[in-house]
Amino acid sequence: MSHVGLRYGNGPEVLRDINLTLHQGSLQFLTGPSGAGKTTLLKLIYLALHPSRGFVQLFGQDTSLASRDDLAYLRRKIGVVFQGFGLLDHLSVFENVALPLRVTGREHQDYQADVKDLLSWVGLGKVLDVSPATLSGGEKQRVAIARAVVAKPELLIADEPTGNVDPEMGKRLMRLFLELNRLGSTVLIASHDTNLIQAVIADIYSLTDGALSFLPARKKKKPK
């Protein structure tokens, strides 16, 4: 993103002069107080919103010049963990998680074992066939995360991914994100969880009143 601004209608800019670079295979956190615009910024990155001004390039392509088909192709490279989960209640837990694989044309027999293994890993191996509507908030969060990572996306965007789970499950999910990053995915996590952020050495973007600042990753301490 280069000098990106966003306003709704004729109102003031809610994001202004955003300059943001996510290098391939990197891991970053996005922090900031409630109402600062973190979710709005994430929506710009995964193409749910278009900027009022500025330049957005995704996977080497200028999104302002991309056709509808091009944008759909770019979105398929992105996994998103929504704050509101975004699950489909008419589909089972298994079907929700498998959806990113189905839309790419993979056959059920090719991904069945992978989806089951992933759901077991996040503690949901016994609810494969139930509707997400019957689950707790923390369980829905884990379904949403499993769906976002199952296709090993080139870019993973997670909006408060540990906000509805206990600390131990939060650590487990963070290990999942780190493993995905190790395999080559670019990962951006928006979080208020200072313990989560301090546990990982990563660059931090901080958003305050619509303006973005950058904090480089702290250096690893040398062993004594």
How would you characterize this protein structure?
With 224 residues, this protein is α/β, with parallel strands linked by helices. It has 2 domains: 1-77 and 153-217, 3-Layer(aba) Sandwich (Rossmann fold); 89-151, no CATH class. 33% of the residues lie in helices and 22% in strands. The chain has 7 helices and 11 strands. The chain has helices at 38-45, 68-75, 93-102, 108-121, 137-149, 167-182, 194-198; strands at residues 2-7, 13-18, 27-31, 53-55, 57-58, 61-62, 78-81, 155-159, 186-190, 203-208, 211-215. Strands 7-8-9-3-10-11 form a 6-stranded mixed beta sheet, sandwiched between helices. A 3-stranded antiparallel beta sheet has the order 2-1-4, with no helix packed on it. Helix 3 packs across helix 4 (108-121) and helix 3 runs parallel beside helix 5. The longest helix has 16 residues, at 167-182. It starts with a strand and ends in a 9-residue tail after the last strand. The relative contact order is 0.19. The model has no long low-confidence stretch (mean pLDDT 91).
